Amino acid sequence: MGAKSSAARRRGAVRIAGLGLGGAGLLFLLSGCSLESFGSAFGNFGWPSSGVSLQAHKMYDLWIAAVIAALVVGIFVWGLIFWCIIRYRKRGDELPVQTRFNMPMEVLYTVTPILVVAVLFYYTAIVQTDVDKLSKNPDQIVQITAFKWQWEFDYRDGMGKDANTVASTIGSADVIPLLVLPTGEKIRFEETSKDVIHSFWVPEMLFKRDVFPGNVRNVFEVTLDKEGRYVGRCAELCGTYHAFMQFEMVVVSPEKFDQFLTAKKAGASTQEAMEAIGFTGKDAYAVTTEPLNTRRQANSWNQHDAVASGK
């Protein structure tokens, strides 16, 4: 009787521990407002940052919640493993009771993984749908045109190919292109390529989207909520100078963005428009990255000419 009650108490303790771990995981999953502070305390669990857009925050929360759920399951499983190692360690030559199967246990380790996968799939589908969602009337429309090995950003007055470009920024080997955008507004990007497949990627947006040539136009929207300057890159191997195909995303207040766009419409260059909203001197150019170093190519050609001429 004493042995049975002791075993029952141990089983009860295991159940309570499991409920406690599950409750802790559920608490973190439900308290989304604390996920960012919790994740930052542990280096974001490998995620770059919490992002600079509303869509990025939701992806960040999904990642942190999934990692916490995995840790909860892992700790519980590790606890059971070590408990079994200690509880059923060899104490003599007598074999313990041999059990062919345990129906409740088999149901548990079959149903539980299915539930875990179903919950993860459900929240992943919700976040993915929200990230890909397009509004009927975005506040700003920007056409992204990629080509070897630069970017062109066209501010448009409507959606689709028939819309007109009201202002444009194009990069060169000497000047990194600036993509100036406002906070708090729905921004629609329409992508196209002039040659091969490229990929539009700003790491702080926690999002990238391939840019295809031809009639395929990838479209997506973001709502930025943090001002700053962020490096953008091509994330698809596209040729010799792929590594130098960069741009800078400059996020400003809606008021400054309107001033910038007004200056561009009046015929100002991108740098002149940047100065109009307070970015003077070197700040009128990219500060997160540098343009392609063409001197290396020039030096190699000079050496080639010298060899060819016998000097």
From TrEMBL:
UniProt cofactor(s): Cu cation
Transmembrane stretches, start-end: 63-86, 107-126
Keywords: Copper, Electron transport, Membrane, Metal-binding, Respiratory chain, Translocase, Transmembrane, Transmembrane helix, Transport
Enzyme Commission code(s) on record: 7.1.1.9
The protein's name: Cytochrome c oxidase subunit 2
Role summary: Subunits I and II form the functional core of the enzyme complex. Electrons originating in cytochrome c are transferred via heme a and Cu(A) to the binuclear center formed by heme a3 and Cu(B).
Organism: Paractinoplanes globisporus
Topological category with respect to the lipid bilayer: Multi-pass membrane protein
Reaction equations catalysed: 4 Fe(II)-[cytochrome c] + O2 + 8 H(+)(in) = 4 Fe(III)-[cytochrome c] + 2 H2O + 4 H(+)(out)
Manner of cofactor binding, per the entry note: Binds a copper A center.
Family: Belongs to the cytochrome c oxidase subunit 2 family.
Domain Cytochrome oxidase subunit II copper A binding: 137-263
A Pfam family reported for this protein in Swiss-Prot or TrEMBL: COX2
Residues covered by the Cytochrome oxidase subunit II transmembrane region profile domain: 39-135
Main location: membrane
